[in-house]
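thoughts on both lines:
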Amino acid sequence: MRDSKMTRFHPSIIYSATQTTLLHSLEALIGLIDFDRINHHKINGSMMASPSSTAAYLIYATAWDSDSEDYLRHVLSASEGAGEGGVPSALHFEIIWNLSPHYSMMLLAQAMMHLVILWDQGRLPFLKQHMIDNQIPILLLQALNRTLLAQNDHGSWVNPPSAEVTSYALLTLTPLQSLPLGDAIQHTIRDALVRGRKYLEVKKFNDERSNYLWIEKVTY
């Protein structure tokens, strides 16, 4: 995947005033760009809030950048290891690393169902009753309804069909099966799961090698 992406890369992309996610992964561009021509992209000393990207800039630019050094020192002191361990791939920055809303839906469904289970076990006594009775069920039903309605006739999700997004949708529906719903809705969920799994069995990911939805460092 990296080789495929790099065939479309030209240094002018990163030298321009426009910021792209490439700035979060400058370490992948060592030997391919002039680091002296990208200092205008700094924000509070960092390159898109990435310690590794900022370190690459600091090392390979010909002039030492004190602002970037200060940012990296702050990262080390603020990280869990407090200077004695690893650091996160991003610090003090909000960005979406997956382009599909079904990924967010999957995380929501899994997290809320886990929360309900913990509450039922008496492990979350501080959680208010109205959240369990009203707010969380509404969230879960919305996630269920949106996911079911978005399924294509042949079992996949989104157009053009995507095996990755279909997997997210199936992982959304799977925990929602345990909700106390009527027989008709349970049947609808089971049917959606069966059709989605059949689609994946046929698809086998063979023709989706370039259809990636992750845009963080894993893509370089």
